[in-house]
Amino acid sequence: MTEKDYNESVLLYADNVYRFIVKNLRHTEDAEDIVQSAFEKLWIHKDSVETQKAKSYLFTVAYHLLIDHTRKAKRISLQESFENDTQRAYQENKALKKVLHDALATLNETQRSLVLLKDYEGYSYEEIGEITKLTTDQVRVYLHRARLKLRNYLISPQQVL
Amino acid sequence: MQNINQHNYQDFLLRYIDEELDLREIEALLAFVAVHPAVGEELESLQSTKLDIETIACPNKAVLYKNIFPVIVEPTTIVYPNKQNLFKKEKEKAPVILLRWWAVGAAAVFIFIVARNGMFNGEAGNGLSKNNVAKNNVVKNNSVKPVTSPVNNPINNISTPNDAIVNTGSLASTNVKENQQNITTIPLQSVGIGDLAYHTIQNASTVTASEAEHTIPSYNGSIIDVKPTVIAEITAAPITLNEAAETQEPNETIETIDTEAASSNRSVMVGAFEIDKDKFRGLFRKANALFKNKENNRNEK
Fold first, then answer.
1. CB contact (8 A) between residue A43 and residue B66
2. How many C-beta atoms surround the C-beta of residue B225 within 10 A?
3. Which of A26, A96, A147, A160 should one mutate to test binding to chain B, selecting the residue with the greatest count of B CBs within 10 A?
4. Least enclosed by CB within 10 Å: which of A20, A144, A145, B74?
């Protein structure tokens, strides 16, 4: 892809990648870093990346950066402190949405990423499998488990009360 | 297609939420839900897990762009002082009239016809027939006053320039010895083609240029450019009556010069027309001059 194609990808996909990451991490600054890293990688490999596959390439890179970031965060036990520190947290406007995103936070990174890629980006099982390096069946099974977990969270007595 | 039953319907519901069913599977699932209301409730609860698409703008997106720098160029107003002098107005082109070959030919024919008509008219006006001119039979004209007729009448008595010209034949007939001096060349046209130019005057009296000089009108149609001719001075001694009587014979001898041969050499037969070469040449010279003038004018423009 050319420089022009790259800049066009920024215009078209930066918001989508950012949304995918920030919904996973619930941390805007970390999400910005990951998005920037993803696009930096695209810029470096722009000669070998086809323009038509730029979006899936960005999500693939962002997903793996997300996994790396989460694993690193787990190691230094910063996960709990994200919501309490001074960094900005993603603001939910509606109560129902807030509950859903709380439920989303209960999923592991893989399940959450699958849900986000499916619902936000509309990728098929196959495409998600390409991004996450999972088979189509794995994507389908993991995604179904995530849905059931979300549903169970939403209909749990605490949420109803 | 796999049939939907109590054991596998949940998989159908989840795939329905994920929009992974084809049309036939969707129809079958909706039919199954219609039969089993509990499955419908479960479908609604699963649909609530689907995330609504929301738009989140990436902050600092500008840092992601590569090699795009906003270029702000402050407008600098520099006014060229003599701008008015630079304006140009295109010259109006003169209409170009293309000369076609047929136009040139038509013009030439027209000029030729006009010239020819004018020539004949002019001859008719002079009262000279073609034959007369050709044969150069000099007819005694009443207006001709022989030099010798009045005794003691000097040749100076030739009263008018016309007389002088017309009388040249008469003068020649007197066999006046050549008193040399300047020989007068008379234009061909003024005396007719046959009246060849040389006339000698024996014992010629003096004919001054002022007397002899006359202006011969140009020919109609301007075929031949006849300019005023100056008949040069003819100095002559006074003629005495005796001498004149001696030299004069009772019957004037008119020297006849047959110019038929000469005229035939000059004429060219074009179809039924007999055309004088000189006139024809003059015609083309005129036409040529006209075209050259036009060409020069065009070049100057």
1. yes
2. 10
3. A147
4. B74
**Is-contact A115 A104, C-beta < 8 A?**
yes
Whether residue A54 is found in the same domain as residue A10: yes
Spell out which residues of chain B touch residue A32, defining contact as CB-CB under 8 Å. 58-60
Tens-place pLDDT, residues A42-95: 999 989 999 999 999 999 999 999 888 888 777 665 445 444 444 444 544 467
Measured between CA atoms, the residue of chain A closest to residue B61 is A14
Q: What is the CATH number of the domain that holds A49?
A: 1.10.1740
* Domain limits, chain B: 9-47, 138-257
Domain final residue pick, A46, A72, A91: A91
Quote ipTM for the complex: 0.76
Burial of A9 (0-12, 13-18, 19+ CB in 10 A): buried
Assess B65–A contact: CB distance below 8 Å, yes or no.
Answer: yes
Q: Most A CBs within 10 Å: which of B8, B64, B69, as the mutation test of the A interface?
A: B64
pLDDT in tens, B225-262: 444 444 444 444 444 445 544 555 455 555 555 555 55
First to last CA, chain A: 53
Residue-range definition of the domain harbouring residue A20? 1-91
Asked if A52 and A1 count as a contact pair (C-beta separation under 8 A), the reply is no
Residue finishing a domain among A91, A121, A141: A91
Domain co-membership, A64 together with A136: no
